[in-house]
Every structure is written in structure tokens, then in C-alpha cells.
Write a structure and sequence with these properties.
With 369 residues, the protein is an alpha/beta fold. Helix content is 41%, strand content 17%. It is built from 10 helices and 14 strands. Helix 6 (196-209) packs across helix 7.
Length: 369
């Protein structure tokens, strides 16, 4: 027994042991030695393959479980944790951070916004003595889609004699007939606020007038060259903010039309014009509006949260456009009307008027395919 152990100690490999043992009697041939080594190599490969198969059987279920857990974590954050965190931020939002009435102290202000108040003769009223009631129709981003605008007005039975049309800006550019759209609006005595596309056009016209070299093939330059003086004067009169005031029968102290959004806690005449035409979100930590969509919480979420805190007689409804990616968004204190008409989606209008003896609001849309 001790001799066997000694042999194993001398020859840990089976082939060496066999060679040693057979060598006690007679030398092992080279052919035999090669055969034994090949058999050992085959055994080793089979063992390696068996080990890999064993690992594979273990790893595949492990990776599947890991992928499932990762998916659940992502969904849990996106659907549960993120909304809870956002709601906490909204509840702790500092409404008073930018409520200064001092123009110089307002850190957001670059220049004064143009604020117009809608003539009271255009406000919705109940019809009396068999007369048709007066309505206001606020339309989302038209972007030169004149035919679709005409279709929408027919659908709501719009009459310039009784109704007033308001656009949320970006009535020009991108679409097939900007000039025709402007003529249609002028013929109806329509109102509009200024969008970022109107502002870009006006900036380009100012550059051309001042002799600045511009890109002649740029779409906005071509558009500027194609418009009549009446069209340009019409656009220059677009305010940044249009206030409708209180509409009898609606639960708002004021209804306001802007292109992109408003900063809560800041009076209309203290809003930043650039942000009014471009903002999409608000950084809640700094209470600063942001233009990119992914740099904070959607401004309308903050606006609605703040309005809920206000007394009933101080609520303001904001009607806006600009954000076709979010699409039609109807909330208690905000209505987003950019439903992507120029992309072949829908054109939408908020119609405010008397229905069945009371003032009401209705969103009407048409397909733009």
C-alpha cells in the first residue's frame, strides 16, 4: 500500500504512472505512449465541454432572472418612484421665489413682454332673443396649413359675425400655405399671440433691414421675401400674451393665451418674452424655466399644482401650443392645443361659448392627413 502511494507521488499523471509501471517490465513503445496521451487529451476536452455546459445551464437562468429584476426596477422607478418624487417636488415648489413686482429685481426678465387684452366685444356671451351666442375659438399651431384650418372652422360652424378666432402662435412656416393662412386670418379679424416661428421671422426681417448678410436659401429667409407688407404688419402686432379676462360662467378669474407657457408666481408683465414663446419645463430646485423638455418638470404640471393652491377667485386658465410631442393636453387650469397638424396628425381648437344655457368649453379636432 505504501508502495502504491509512493508511485502516485512520483507520477501524479496517469500516463506517467502507467509508463513507470510498464517500464518495470519492458519499455513502452512510442506509438503506445502517443495513444495514451491522445486518450487523456480527449478525456480532458470532454471534461472541459461538460464544465462549459454546466456553466451555461447555470448562467442562462441567472441572466434571465437578472434581466427580469432590472426590468422591474426600471418600471418601478418610472411608474411609481419617479411620479412620487415629482409630486413631492411639486408640493414643495417655492411659489414666492420669483414673485417680485420690481422689474429690475425679476431675475428671469430680459425685456418686457407685449401683453394685450382682448376687446370685450369678442368675449363669449349667451344669445338673447333668439340670437346666436357669441363664441371664442382658440386654435392650436397651424403652421401654414390653411386648408386644414378652413376644415376645422367649418366643423365648428364658425361665423366671423358672431365668433372670434384666436391662434396660439406658429401660424406660419413649415406648412404649404403661410401667405394664404395669414390672409384668411386677416379676413376674419382674428387674433394671435406670437410664437417662436413668428419671432424668428421678425428677427430675420430686422437683420435684412439692417444690412446683415443672411442665408438666402434658408426657409425663413425665403418666407420673409414671399410675404406682403400687410402680412408682416399683421405679424408684428402679435403680442406675446393675450389676456381674455374673466369670462362669465367660467370658473376662472382670467383666461390667458400664450404660445409656449408661463412661469407660475410671476405676473404677466414680468414674464420673460423668450420663455413665453419657447419654454417647456421648469427646474424645480431653482424655480427656473427651461426650454429643453428633459431639463425639469413640464411647466403645465407646475402651473396646475400652483393653481390648485390658489383661492377660487384667483384661478387662471392658460391656453397654449408649441409642444406637439406632448400633443393635446387638457388639464383643469391649462389646455395644450398643439396636436401636430403640420406632421399629418390633428388640428385642435378650444371652443368657448354658451351651450344649453350655460357657458362651456369644448375641444374639437380634425385629422390633418
Amino acid at each position: 500500500m505504501l508502495f502504491v502511494i509512493y508511485l502516485l507521488h512520483l507520477c501524479p499523471e496517469p500516463s506517467g504512472l502507467l509508463e513507470l509501471c510498464t517500464g518495470l517490465g519492458r519499455p513502452m513503445s512510442r506509438k503506445k505512449r502517443t495513444q495514451i496521451q491522445q486518450e487523456e487529451l480527449n478525456d480532458s476536452n470532454q471534461s472541459s465541454k461538460a464544465g462549459e455546459m454546466h456553466k451555461s445551464r447555470f448562467l442562462n437562468p441567472f441572466l434571465a432572472v437578472l434581466a427580469l429584476i432590472s426590468t422591474l426596477v426600471i418600471l418601478t422607478y418610472d411608474k411609481i418612484l419617479a411620479p412620487i418624487w415629482e409630486d413631492y417636488q411639486l408640493r414643495s415648489y417655492d411659489l414666492n421665489k420669483y414673485q417680485s413686482s420690481d422689474l429690475e429685481a425679476a431675475p428671469l426678465l430680459r425685456s418686457r413682454p407685449i401683453v394685450h387684452t382682448l376687446d370685450s366685444k369678442h368675449l363669449p356671451e349667451h344669445g338673447e332673443h333668439g340670437k346666436r351666442s357669441k363664441r371664442v375659438a382658440i386654435v392650436g399651431d397651424v403652421h401654414g396649413c390653411k386648408d386644414q384650418l378652413s376644415d376645422l372652422l367649418r366643423k365648428i360652424d364658425f361665423s366671423p359675425k358672431y365668433d372670434h378666432l384666436i391662434c396660439v402662435g406658429d401660424v406660419i412656416n413649415k406648412g404649404p400655405d403661410t401667405a394664404g393662412t395669414l390672409r384668411l386670418l386677416r379676413s376674419m379679424g382674428a387674433s394671435s399671440v406670437r410664437g417662436n416661428h413668428e419671432q424668428e421671422l421678425l428677427n430675420r426681417l430686422d437683420e435684412i433691414a439692417s444690412g446683415v448678410a443672411v442665408n438666402e436659401v434658408d426657409p425663413i429667409t425665403k418666407l420673409a421675401a414671399s410675404l406682403e407688407p400687410e402680412d408682416i404688419r399683421f405679424i408684428r402686432n402679435f403680442p406675446h400674451i393675450l389676456s381674455l379676462g374673466h369670462i362669465r360662467g367660467l370658473p376662472y378669474a382670467n383666461t390667458v393665451v400664450v404660445h409656449a407657457g408661463l412661469m407660475p408666481g410671476v405676473s404677466l408683465d414680468q414674464q420673460d418674452p423668450k420663455l413665453v414663446m419657447n419654454m417647456r419645463s421648469i427646474d424645480l430646485r431653482e424655480a427656473v424655466p427651461k426650454i429643453p423638455r428633459d431639463k425639469g418638470v413640464a411647466w403645465w404640471k407646475v402651473w396646475n399644482r400652483v393653481q390648485k393652491r390658489q383661492k377660487d377667485d384667483r384661478h387662471t386658465l392658460v391656453v397654449y401650443g408649441h409642444d406637439s410631442k406632448s400633443g393635446l393636453k387638457v388639464k383643469p387650469f391649462s389646455v395644450g392645443l398643439d396636436s401636430g397638424c403640420v406632421k399629418g396628425e390633428k388640428l385642435s381648437a378650444l371652443v368657448i361659448g354658451s351651450a344649453k344655457g350655460r357657458m362651456s368649453q369644448e375641444v374639437v379636432s380634425i385629422d390633418c392627413r
